[in-house]
Amino acid sequence: MLPLRKLFTRSADLRTFGFGLIWSTLGTVAVRLTPLITTVLISHWFGIESVGKFAVTYGTLMSASMLAATGVSLMATRNIAAFAKTEPDTAGRLAGMAVLLAGGTGVALALAIYVFSDEIAGRILKQPGLAFYLRVISPIIAISALNNVQTAILRGLQEFRTTARLDMIMGILMIGSVPAGLYLYGLTGGFAALGFAYLAGCMITTPAMLHGLRSRGIRFSFSGSLSQWPMITRYAIPALLASLLYEPVNWICTTIIVNKPDGLEQVGLYFIAMQLETLLLFAPQIVVQVLIPMLSSGFGEKDSRRVRNILAMSIGANLAIAIGFVAVMMLFGDWFLLLFKLDPARDWPIFMIVVLAAAMIACALPLGQVPVSSGYMWTGLSITGGWAATFIIGTWLFQDQGAKGIVIARAIAWGLQTLVYIGFTHFAISRTTSHSKEASS
């Protein structure tokens, strides 16, 4: 067996995966810590009901931002990775189209949230007092969408070191400004500070993105960008529809819960549970960020052996991480609950479900990128649609259990989706093997 150092030196994929994982981890920690720190501060300074207000408003921001940018971002990452070397002009037009679409969609959604804030808060959420906060976060939607697609372009170029540095700057801005805004002006100040951090991050990311493209001989261009429209119908539209079935589905499920008599408290408890899931999954999701361009290259080259090796590396890394965080939470879970002024005896079952579900999700995340990377975007959308339907129906059935009901529904949905991903991955790799044999003959 080769020594680890020689194996690492010889394997280009292992090197790319390893260094990408390290840099992406460093960059993501600070950004992911901000909602966690913010939730701790709100629970201590303002109480669990204010956590619920923050959760619903922040969830609206994330849902709208993902709706504006996720489909376009996945299209940009996947196709810029595929065309950067072989067709740099196409890659440049794809980057221009991605920025145009994300920016335009973000502005449209921001205006819609601002104009209809009273109707959303009063009629849908049954919480009229949230209308003001919805207006405060509406401009952040457009800025966040633009920032997300810029970062996606850099990931398509496999500029993991650059994205890590940008994420660290963004994290420092968030961690420094959001708590200060909360302390001085409450939730309004916290959201305003968040908007400042996103705006500063967007201004810093723009020159980094342009430099990354130029360094690979790619000219960023709006001219002729809409000629790449087939990429929208093949990749961005199904990815966009899939994004409709993730964060917005969470928003729908929290809306079901928030309409109950103690709805804000239950949503606050669920939001804290999701902060735990975010904390546990931040490293596995970084693995996925590194994985997408590598898998796209493997499927593009119809190299099934490379695809298997990349998936094995990513699933192995996530499995090790999952075992670690389950062990840590079993030992120190009570401390986490006390951090948020929760009662371990009452609330531990909810968080235990979240921990075990997060372990399952961690191992399934790499398989979830196979439809995107192999070009079966519409199949991936169908799988996601099944997850969404299961989650919403389960939440409706278990709504009387509040936060516990929604985490049970979420765990069931992810379990079924994981089984489907396993079957589809086997199919996609088999198809790649057969195409490779046909090409060689």
Automatic annotation (TrEMBL):
Localization terms from the record: Cell membrane
Q: Which domain of life is it from?
A: Bacteria
For this UniProt entry, which segments traverse the membrane?
21-48, 54-74, 94-116, 136-154, 166-185, 191-214, 235-258, 278-299, 311-336, 348-368, 375-399, 411-429
- One matching Pfam family, short form? Polysacc_synt_3
Q: Which UniProt keywords are given for this protein, alphabetically ordered?
A: Cell membrane, Membrane, Transmembrane, Transmembrane helix
Q: Which InterPro entries match?
A: Poly_Biosynth_Transport
Per the record, membrane topology reads: Multi-pass membrane protein
Q: What is this protein called?
A: O-antigen/teichoic acid export membrane protein
Protein species of origin: Aquamicrobium ahrensii
What does UniProt list as this organism's lineage?
A: Bacteria, Pseudomonadati, Pseudomonadota, Alphaproteobacteria, Hyphomicrobiales
